[in-house]
Amino acid sequence: MLALLMGTGIFLTIRLKFLPWRNLGYALKSVFAKPDPSKKDSSGDISPFQSLMTALAATIGTGNIVGVATAMVLGGPGALVWMWISALFGLSTKYGESVLAVKYRETNVEGEMAGGPMYAMKNGFKNKTIGSILAVLFSGFAVIASFGIGNMTQANSISGAVLGTFGIPTWITGAVITILALVVLLGGIKSIGRVCGVIVPFMAVFYFLGGILVIIINFQNIPAGIAQIFTMAFSPTAIAGGVGGTVIASMLSAMRWGVARGVFSNEAGLGSAPIAAAAAKTDHPSRQGYINMTGTFFDTLVVCTVTGLVIASSGVLGTVTESGKLLSGADLTIASFESVLGPIGGYLVTIGIMLFAFSTILGWEYYGEKSLEYLIKAPIAIKAYRFIFSIVTFIGATTALQIVWDFSDTMNGLMAIPNLISLLVLSNVIAKECFDYEEKIIKPERESRRLEKKAIVENE
Questions:
Q1: What's the rounded Cα separation, in Å, for the pair 458 and 423?
Q2: CATH for 21
Q3: How many domains are contained in the chain?
Q4: Which residues have C-beta within 8 Å of that of residue 381, sequence separation ≥ 6?
Q5: Which residues cross the membrane (predicted)?
Q6: DSSP state of 211
Q7: How far apart are CA 154 and CA 109, in angstroms?
Q8: What is the pLDDT of residues 372-393, one digit of tens each?
Q9: Shortest CA distance to 94 belongs to which of 12, 25, 3?
């Protein structure tokens, strides 16, 4: 699975002549650019920024706090390098997914945009039978996965963190999450988009600044931490030592855990984020492709990097608990922040987990809803899904159902297979849209800016 995910990213990067990399600066500017009022042909439900925030809501989750720590224990600090590598190729995958989602989207009976890998398979494949079968499989896997990785595991992370830090019983936390989810989700994508447009930037900046503060205070440890990260990423066998223990890892384990945590953190190739991309108001598939592509950049190359550097510079990696087990997951990240900020560090991480996980619940509800909509066209089924999804958060917050989580993780992985097949089959369509946008939009814009600068210089 990981080879297929990475392989598709590498193939698309080369097929697109590295344009997703070369235009990353342009993509980042586009995220914060104000919509052009002269573009009357833009169709969609929410703004491009809200679409990205909805996608980021689902991807920036507990994986950025728990997943990074787990990868660095099981794969060593070098796993962080392989997270970066997977993210670089994931830019092209996320770009391609989003282009297809916008190009092949449809308008549903409610007048809302409906799109994603299932519609790309249905409308883009020449062999309609194969396309329809893959679309149904993807949608079914996505609906099941939404209840697990997008709901129960997130609710459980919130209730567990709140119980551990503040001592609040899980049933109280579960009830609060359920009510909040109901209020937001019953309003549909426009409500989700508005809430995510506020929560996601706030939570990301909040966590980022806290992490940067820890890194600055531990600045003297950063050179050694970075050296250890790169040494262990490419060393056959290497050892990282903390205060009370050691982490032994090989290059293969660093690669395995780094790529795995990276891919499942930014979701490039899983086919989930393009469902949000399809709802955006945009005049060209590539415009939204570039904007949604930055989700991988923000998720892995920014947020995960901060977590990784905090852990690497704290000296906590490799420490063992009283029971003799290596400190891992959320406990490792909390210990890393607390090593500098004291109890405040634990509160910061706990609040981060709460916001990250709740936004993931909102984002994944939309993915599951749109996937169900593809399978069942009745609007009443969608309203029932929103209600049931909200109630399930209470079960997730108060019950540890490991078998359900494992099953939903499997569904999450299975989503990627039809999606990656779709990306490879329709790679020529992606390339055509990419090169068309480059010639008609990006190059003229660059030439216009060059002439403006030239005119300013001549006037001076």
A1: 47
A2: 1.20.1740.10
A3: 1
A4: 372, 373
A5: 65-85, 130-149, 161-186, 198-219, 225-252, 297-320, 340-364, 384-405, 411-431
A6: H
A7: 31
A8: 999 998 888 888 998 999 998 9
A9: 12
Give the list of residues 6+ apart from residue 27 with CB closer than 8 angstroms, or none.
20, 290, 291, 293, 294, 297
Residue 333 belongs to a domain? yes
240, 76 contact by CB (below 8 A): yes
- Write the DSSP string, 365-403: HHHHHHHHHHH---HHHHHHHHHHHHHHHHHHHH---HH
d(CA 76, CA 448): 48
Domain assignment present for 442: no
Cα 379 to Cα 109, 112, 458, distances in angstroms = 8, 12, 61
Could you tell me the residue range of the domain that residue 397 belongs to? Answer: 2-425
Q: DSSP secondary-structure letter at 332?
A: H
**Is 248 contained in some domain?**
yes
C-alpha distances out from residue 298 to 84, 254, 417, Å: 11, 22, 25
User: Alpha carbon of 248 to those of 218, 237, 238: distances in Å?
Assistant: 23, 7, 6
Q: Give the model confidence (pLDDT) of 141-200 as tens digits.
A: 999 888 887 888 888 888 888 888 888 898 999 999 999 988 888 877 778 778 877 887
